[in-house]
Structure formats: structure tokens, C-alpha cells
Design goal:
The protein is mainly β and 192 residues long. The chain has one helix and eight strands, in the order αββββββββ. It has an eight-stranded antiparallel sheet, covered by helices on one side.
Amino acid sequence: GYPLPAFLYRKGRGAMGRIIHSIQITIAGLLIVVLGCPLGSDPVGAEMVKNLSIGTILDSNAFGSHQEESDLIGRINLYLANRMTGTRSQLEYYFSGTGNVFTRAGDRAFSLGTAGVAYARKVGEQRSMVNASAGISVRLDRPYYDIYDYVSTQASVSGKVYPSSGVMLRGSYRVKHRNYWNLDLFNHTEHR
């Protein structure tokens, strides 16, 4: 893997110190998105978005092994957001929580919680857009599988412009850092 920048990961700080540091970086990213992308003088409408979904997944290799044991996984997901919309922009604070329960392998149950902010703004008079987002996720497993517990932070920016009616230019950048609390070897940062 790639060495992590010192401000993202410092050996000797302990797992909790690295987690707190990741949270600090995420909060800074969230503030940059929120303060750097105001709704401006747009008339603002606001709505609370609530979504609850329940479903099942059949995993043909639940343990990821050569034995290929299948399991039925029950999943529940809750999505809550406060969405503020203007004539040219939209700002959303959100939380998503997911719980997964394995039918045959109950010890594999885990939850994933994500909180973040997303911003979109029209640029110019055409369909050109700029988007930015930042968030933090935490995965918690049952004791036997707590090796997979992590905190993950991400930030992204993207945009598209139409220089003429038949041409669209698009670009994006995303950075994501994942810190496994009990498995330092898997810690990584992705840039796309």
C-alpha cells in the first residue's frame, strides 16, 4: 500500500487516538463543505427525508472461503436527512444506519452508521453543476468478528460543464480513508 500522510495516521497514538484524529479531519471537511458552499440568496425550502427499508440477501459465500457456505442475511436500513433546496442549490445533512443479521452465522452480524453532508449547485445558465460531499462511517461487528470494525472518512468534489450544446466535460476527485481499529495492516487511503 501507499504510506499515509502523517496528518491522517500517526503510529504510536493508539487506535483511539487515530479514530479521534480521523473524526477531527472529517469534521473539518464537513465545515469546509458547509461554510464554503452557502445557499446564498436562493429562496430556501426545507424537508425532512425519512426512509426505512427491510430486506434479505442470499450470499452464496458468506464466509469468503473455499467451502462456499451460503447464508441468508436480513438487512434493515434507516436513512434520515434534512434537505434544504434553493433555486440553484441543495444542501443535505444525512444519517444512514444499516444492520445486517446472518441467519446461520449469527456471530457475523454487524452494523454500519454513516453521517455526512452533501451540496450541489447549478453553475451558469445551463445544466452545469458542482457537487461536494464529506462524511464519516463506523462499522461495528460482534466480538468474534470485531477485527472488521473500522472508521472511514471520505470527501469528494465533482462537476460537469457544457461548453456547447452537444459537449459535456466532467471531472471528479474523491479521497477516502479507512482505519481498522483491530487490524492496522488493512488501514488505507484511496484517491480517485
